[in-house]
Specification:
heterodimer, A: about 120 residues, mainly beta, 12 strands, B: mainly beta, seven-stranded mixed β-sheet, 11 strands
Chain lengths: ~120, ~120
C-alpha cells in the first residue's frame, strides 16, 4: 500500500522565521518518486520538486531546501527566511514505479497549511 | 504557452444530476489525469489517460467515467451526483506517463469546484 503522512495540519510563523514541513511515506516499491506541491488559495497545484528513490542528495533552491532520508522514509521541506507569499497549503506526494503500478499516479498527503504573518 | 485549462470554474448541481467537467492539457502533452480534492484533504486519484486510452483508475464508483479525445483534451463525467461528490476536481497533464524527467512534470489546472446540494 502507498501512503503519505503529513502530521502537521497547520503551521504559523512570523516572517523571516525558518519553517520545516514534515513528510513521511510508506511504499513497498523499490523505485518511486517523491514530490512537493504548493497550493495557493487559487487552488492550482504548483510543482516544487521531484526526487527519485535512488537519489538521497539534499537539494537547495533559493530559500527552499529538501531533506530526503530513505532510512526514515522522510522527505522534509524547509523554507528559510519565510515570506508572506509562502502562505499556502503544501502537499507531499509519492509516485510508485514498480511493475504493476500506475505510472505517474500521485498519492498525496493531507497537506500542511502554512501561514506566514508579517 | 497556455497552461492546463479547466471548465467550468464553478458548478452547482443537485443530488441525482449528472455533470461533465472538461480539461485541455498543455499543448503537446498526451497524458491527462483527474483528481478529486475534498475540502481539507489531499487530492485523490480518479483516472489517468494516455494516448486516448485509460491507463489507471482509482477507487471510485462506476458513476465516475472519463474519456480522452484525439486532441488529448479530456472529460470527466459523474452520474447520479451525491452530496459527497462536492469537491475541487483537478486535471493534470504531462508529456508522457512517467514523470521521471524534468520534461515529464505533471502540471495541474486551476480545478473545477463542484457543489452538490
Amino acid at each position: 500500500a502507498q501512503k503519505v503522512t503529513q502530521a502537521q495540519t497547520e503551521i504559523s510563523v512570523v516572517e523571516k522565521e525558518d519553517v520545516t514541513l514534515d513528510c513521511v511515506y510508506e511504499t513497498r516499491d523499490t523505485t518511486y518518486y517523491l514530490f512537493w506541491y504548493k497550493q495557493p488559495p487559487s487552488g492550482e497545484l504548483v510543482f516544487l520538486i521531484r526526487r527519485n528513490s535512488f537519489d538521497e542528495q539534499n537539494e537547495i533552491s533559493g530559500r527552499y531546501s529538501w531533506n530526503f532520508q530513505k532510512s526514515t522514509s522522510s522527505f522534509n521541506f524547509t523554507i528559510t527566511a519565510s515570506q508572506v507569499v509562502d502562505s499556502a497549503v503544501y502537499f507531499c506526494a509519492l509516485s510508485p514505479y514498480d511493475r504493476g503500478s500506475t505510472l505517474g499516479r500521485l498519492y498525496f498527503g493531507r497537506g500542511t497549511q502554512l501561514t506566514v504573518w508579517p | 504557452d497556455a497552461g492546463v485549462t479547466q471548465s467550468p470554474t464553478h458548478l452547482i448541481k443537485t443530488r441525482g444530476q449528472h455533470v461533465t467537467l472538461r480539461c485541455s492539457p498543455i499543448s503537446g502533452h498526451k497524458s491527462v489525469s483527474w483528481y478529486q480534492q475534498v475540502l481539507g484533504q489531499g487530492p485523490q486519484f480518479i483516472f489517468q489517460y494516455y494516448e486516448k486510452e485509460e491507463r489507471g483508475r482509482g477507487n471510485f464508483p462506476d458513476r465516475f467515467s472519463a474519456r480522452q479525445f484525439p486532441n488529448y483534451s479530456s472529460e470527466l463525467n459523474v452520474n447520479a451526483l451525491l452530496l459527497g461528490d462536492s469537491a475541487l476536481y483537478l486535471c493534470a497533464s504531462s508529456l508522457t506517463l512517467t514523470q521521471t524527467t524534468s520534461t515529464d512534470t505533471q502540471y495541474f489546472g486551476p480545478g473545477t469546484r463542484l457543489t452538490v446540494l
